[in-house]
Design a protein that fits this description.
The structure holds two protein chains of two kinds. By secondary structure, chain A is an all-beta fold. Chain A has strands at about 5, 10-15, 20-25, 30-40, 40-50, 55, 65-70, 75-80, 85-95, 105, 110-114. In chain B, strand 6 and strand 7 form a beta hairpin. The chains are: A mainly beta, B mainly beta.
Amino acid sequence: KAGVTQTPRYLIKTRGQQVTLSCSPISGHRSVSWYQQTPGQGLQFLFEYFSETQRNKGNFPGRFSGRQFSNSRSEMNVSTLELGDSALYLCASSLRVPSTDTQYFGPGTRLTVL
Amino acid sequence: QKEVEQDPGPLSVPEGAIVSLNCTYSNSAFQYFMWYRQYSRKGPELLMYTYSSGNKEDGRFTAQVDKSSKYISLFIRDSQPSDSATYLCAMGGYNKLIFGAGTRLAVHP
């Protein structure tokens, strides 16, 4: 079974621009979560989608948004990029809700904001 | 105070050593406890998953949960250079999943 895939793997943007990251979960998984990982803050939860509905949202500004499509694929968008948005963005999928189920992570998208 | 505390390390040990990695937590609602391993430039992968107090063993890895002390541990026996990675604890329950900051482990030959 194919794992979680994320595109693109690397991205360089400048301040003020916007970016869209994509995640394809494992086939049959209906839950997709997004995380931001930085050396100083560790793994920070962004949001979680289950069957196209956002079930949970982390403590991030409104510049960070996401959505999930009917095929469970998910996208996250960051508008008006800031230097501090440079991070590894990880997507994870699971069969059931993440708090009780194994999450399978993709390789991440490394975003650099200049 | 963070809900999950994990010493970031780095932890450096010789090959063959027993490694102990730990996390403490403050929210007694957590019922599910996980350990993930993350190699450089990769996403985390699940190592161990437990939902009760006590020990769970899988090969060289043992996960230990003490709910009364709100403390979980991961032991690695006969550590190998291939175990060099960042280890993240994670705790879930009541619609919440929280990760620790991760402990960087280096096993040198």
